[in-house]
Amino acid sequence: MNITRTNVDALNAIITVEVSKADYAPKVEKILADYRKNAAISGFRKGTVPMSLIQKQYGKAVLLEEVNKVVQENLNKYLQLEKLDILGNPLPKVTDNFNWDADDFKFDFELGLTPEFSVDLAAKNDIVHYKIIADDTMLNAQIARIQKQYGKIISQNEVTEGNDVAGTFFNEEKGINNRTTIDLELFADKKTAASFIGKKVGDVVTLNTKGLFHDDHKLMDFLAVSHDDVHGLDVDVTFSIDEVIASEPANLDQELFDKLFGPKAITSVDELKAKIKEDAENQFVQQSNQKFLNDVSQSLLVSTKFDLPAAFLKRWIQQSAGETPLTPEQAEEEYIKSENGLRFQLIEGKIMAENNLQITFEDLKNYTTEVIKKQMAQFGQMNPTDEDVQGIVARVMSNQDEVKRLSEQVMSEKMLQLYKDKVNAKTKEVNFDEFVKAMYGEA
Q1: CA-CA distance, 281 to 135, in Å (whole number)?
Q2: At what angle do helices 269-303 and 432-439 cross, to 10 degrees?
Q3: What's the 3-state SS for 308-344?
């Protein structure tokens, strides 16, 4: 057995595997001998079938199988020993008129090599890490919602000013069919709100989506349309009223404070605002961090330049699609769709290796423990015993799919911290509406 590598260029190589008769013959002879012992062929007693007949009937198939095994085993060992970073899998080069009647064989395999490149996390960029502030407008609106939520609900048949209306937005052409409850004050045009006044349960109001709300993104919430569809959406929708809701706002008193946060946890409106602000901004951190991660990833994808063995990868995609190979055109399309994902996978792998980012068992266990505690708190279990928590942790970590999902989250946290430490991003304070606009590239 002899294996050699010829580098075509920095991204492509040919591995040549030379197999001699000595590499496969003993195994082939043993298998054929076993066949002979058990062969049941008419005219011969078991075990007396001539080897020439066994060779004629089974020899070529056994030869092909055993040579293939020898080649694959030794090729894999070679790749591991040489520590070659390859993309995809080796592709056998088709040789016309290959002679399987020879004693010695030679096989060529194409390799796509991982490119050499560097990642500069500290490079100049225009990345912004947003700090989202709960401003007075948001706080006052949240307090008003709390007062409405805990106030006295009064159903009525006719819409009057200050009511909420429940019903269904519908437009068959756009596939809109969404039941929701809406505060009339949310409409951008007071004439739109006024068009509901005097309407009764069962009535239908026709509205146009263009400029329906101050922020077009609210169409995503109330009409259940995608972000790609909301901008400039200009269609008529019907709203079928099935409930009219009036409410008497709850008083901002100690009784309400205790319902919200427990006895005497807060004792004034100022403390209520401070608590709402703290909780809201804590929730915003996750959204801000996710955008930061996405923005850094996109920036690295643009700024980190390297070539890929594109021709090889397209051939590999074409041949690894399953029983039916893809056409060259289909492989080209698949490559275009997957190229950025592959590029960032290589960039991310480089970052992890250079910064020694690893996940230990303790990392995973500690992260899972915190996740379980937060979930239990959401269901009112504020002080679970360590035994209860660790019992759930053990069950979760026995599930391979859950372990994979949690491992990805742990690594994401590590990457986030690394980016915060090393990426030269600007910090900018914004309110939530400004953040939404920035998130969708409208700032």
Answers
A1: 10
A2: 20
A3: CCHHHHHHHHHHCCCCCCCCHHHHHHHHHHHHHHHHH
Provide the pLDDT confidence category of residue 199 given band limits of 50, 70 and 90.
very high
Residue 36 to residue 26: CA distance in whole angstroms: 15
With residue 59 as reference, give the H or E element that holds it: helix 51-82
Q: If you average pLDDT over every residue of the chain, what do you get?
A: 92
Q: Are strands 128-133 and 426-431 parallel, antiparallel or unpaired?
A: parallel
Distance CA 193, CA 183 (A): 9
Residue 310, token pair as written in the block? 């594109």
Backbone dihedral angles phi then psi of residue 197, each to the nearest 5 degrees: -60, 130
Q: Please check whether residue 235 is in contact with residue 209, taking contact to mean a CB–CB distance below 8 angstroms.
A: yes
Tell me phi and psi for residue 300, to 5 degrees. Answer: -65, -35
Q: Is residue 220 a contact partner of residue 230, using CB atoms and an 8 Å limit? A: yes
Dihedral in degrees, nearest 10, Cα atoms 127, 133, 136, 138 = 90
pLDDT band at 443 (very low <50, low <70, confident <90, very high): low
Could you tell me if 167 and 242 are in contact, meaning their C-beta atoms sit under 8 angstroms apart? yes
Q: Please enumerate in sequence order all residues whose Cβ is within 8 A of that of 193, keeping only pairs 6 or more positions apart, or say none.
A: 184, 185, 187
Cβ–Cβ < 8 Å for 19, 71: yes
Tokens at 114, concatenated? 């991982």
With a cut of 60, say whether residue 213 has pLDDT above it.
Answer: yes
pLDDT digits (tens, 9 = 90+) for 7-37: 999 999 999 999 999 999 999 999 988 888 8
Could you tell me which residues are beta bridge partners of residue 110?
Answer: 14, 91
For the CA atoms of 410, 414, 417, 418, the dihedral, rounded to the nearest 10 degrees, stands at -160
What are the φ/ψ torsions at residue 117 (nearest 5 degrees)? -160, 170
**Amino acid occupying residue 50:** P
Q: How many whole angstroms separate alpha carbon 272 and alpha carbon 252?
A: 9
**Alpha-helical segments (H) within 237-327:** 254-261, 269-303, 310-319
CA distances from 233 to 167, 220, 227 (A): 21, 11, 10
Residues in the chain: 443
Extract the tokens encoding 437.
């606009």
Question: Is the pLDDT assigned to residue 74 strictly greater than 90?
Answer: yes
Query: Residue 76 has which token pair?
Result: 């894999």
Take residue 67 and report the two structure tokens written for it.
Answer: 């040579």
